[in-house]
Amino acid sequence: MDKTEQSIVYCCKQGTFTSGVGRHSDPYTIDWIVPSDSASRWDDPGYTPLFSDRIPVMRQSADGGLHGFVMHDLCWQLLQKFYEPDDVPIERLHDVCRSLPLAILGSCAFWGHDYGGLITLDTKDHYPWEDRAENEFNSSLTHAKEDPYDVAEIPELLTLSYNSSPSLGITQPHVVRETKSDCFAKFPWEIIEEISANLLVSDILALIRSSRTFGPILSSQTFWASRFETGKDRAFLFEKRNCKEARDWIKLYQLTKRSASPPGLKNRRRIWDLIQCLAPYLASSLDKNPKLSLTSSARNGICEVAGDILVEFDSGYPDTFNQGCLLFDKQRTTIPSNLLRVGFSVAEDSITGIRLVSGVQEDICLGYIIKCKEAVIETTSLGGFMLAVDSRGIRAVRVIHGDGNESDWVGNPAGTPITGRLMKLGDINTLEVGVDGYKIISIAAASPHSIPLKIPLQRKAFWYPSIPSPGLCLNDQSFTGQDPLTASYQPLAWINFGGPKGAYLKHITGVCVTGPGNICTIEFEYDIDLPVEICKLGRRKVTDFSIMNRFKIDGPGGEYITSIDASIIRFKGKNVYPFYRWGKLFSFKITTNYGRSAHFATRDPTVEPPTMTPLSVEPGTIVTGLYGAQHPEQGLISLGVISEVATMGKRKREPELGGPIKRSNILPGNRETAPRS
After folding, report:
1. Domain limits, the chain
2. What fold, for 286-453?
3. Residues 367, 356 contacting (CB under 8 angstroms)
4. pLDDT digit string, tens, across residues 535-590
5. Which residues pair with 345 in a beta bridge?
6. For residue range 251-267, what is the model confidence (pLDDT) as tens digits?
7. What is the CATH number of domain 476-644?
8. Which of 189, 417, 530, 567 could form a disulfide with 491 if both were Cys (CB 3.0 to 4.6 A apart)?
9. Structure pTM?
């Protein structure tokens, strides 16, 4: 697969266009020069590269409004085949590309997926919303190097599946039809084949288990021929489109399954699958109508939830856009008084649009509506929303009905911080969404009621992996971090290391704090096996430069943490991370009921250690958890304490067997130092 030949989708004052095919084989050359004519190539006879054909791309600054995004030419050709005979909607493609952060290592747009197994998303040493991928490509995916467009083996596959006298279908299968228990038995066979043609093979297999009428469909050449039509699971074999020969479609389907396909066809299928994920975004458009001004009463109660929006963004493409999202536009509307239902457009991992349906007026559309991928919630009033939000925008939503009941999740909240900030607003009368080029990145809602001056942290923060239960005391007043309402996007990860009601406290044998200088992870150790989600706060790769400070705790003997103190450090200035202006976690100290303590601090000899402050807990409760926000490079930037009513007691010791104490996911081979006290 030649990755040096590229086309560019670019925008200028005259509109959005695609370039011809250029060649960029010198990694030390920053200029991208391509033929301006989309039908031309760099190797055409008589073509001479001109500096006037230079197009700024990716991180490069726009030149008089001229800026573009690079695509491998073979991928571009497959995209054209996908849309054939129509043209690729390049305006929408450019909007989507403008919305994608650039990979930290390199200058390519980072789509947020694994490129069909080509890379591995790093959710072990980073949280999912941090958008990090491992540096190395998957070497086992050797077919990714093959040409996906001109696959040499395809003519042979067509030859092997040639059939001079195939049976195109089954005129009338000899099946005993049970019309009483099988409603499909009443339909003629042509209708059964038409229904089957619009279903996935997996759906057909499931349907056969409940309806014997569909059993013979697996022997129907007509059905298997439909698998190769546009939009079906074998549409990537576009050579078949112009093939008029008689064919054994069942055999061709078997020859093109993943395990049997030649390497080039496997690579084509990988890229085709990614194009299918992109297609719904390109099919959507933004309704420019909903832009009503908020009334003064609505403004009193407006509350917003957003992804990690790059606030410095004005126009063009910012070279610092490494993660998060960009705000292109905002839309707002009043909620119809005669609301009947709400439709949410969901494509892949994003909520792209919201449609409000009433009985007496036209639908109100916010964001990008994709009707073929819409989930509809029947409701006559909106009391609020529970939202799953990652750095790129809104991933999933639960509707809170006017009577307080909750809908199921629309979209997929897995691996995404959750917030209840918009859950208890009352009767929502105004809705506002912020969008980038293809999805919703913020939702704001307003009601006639004023927002309470004090909203509990449990409700207003972004929580991962879920919102802590009301039975846990979050001790908001002693949290070292910034108020989530003013801190933009700072999800709080939390662990309940003590277990429900302190059930795991008697199994704790120590705590280990790791970092190359900053406080990056806090991990509890046990004499039993527990999931890392319970034991470890913070995620960071352990390297040769990591220092692991360990403090032993005799949980089996009745020792437990009674108090935690912490200090923060502040830096002012224009070129510092915003959280430094508020205060970043510098150190913390834990004290146990045995009178023992350990002090874990950031290693920075240039900074005078700041004053420690107790992280007070609710009277009558015991420390059983921690929470805090993390920066991908700076480690844990804030710390809070979870406590609950728990009864502590000594655990009955097991007889010593001489084996090692079990620890929770501690990586060996790294040096350890004594705790700083």
Report:
1. 4-145, 153-261, 286-453, 476-644
2. Vitelline Membrane Outer Layer Protein I, subunit A (2.100.10)
3. no
4. 999 999 888 888 899 999 999 999 999 999 999 999 988 888 889 989 999 999 99
5. 353, 374
6. 999 999 999 999 999 99
7. 2.100.10.30
8. 417
9. 0.89
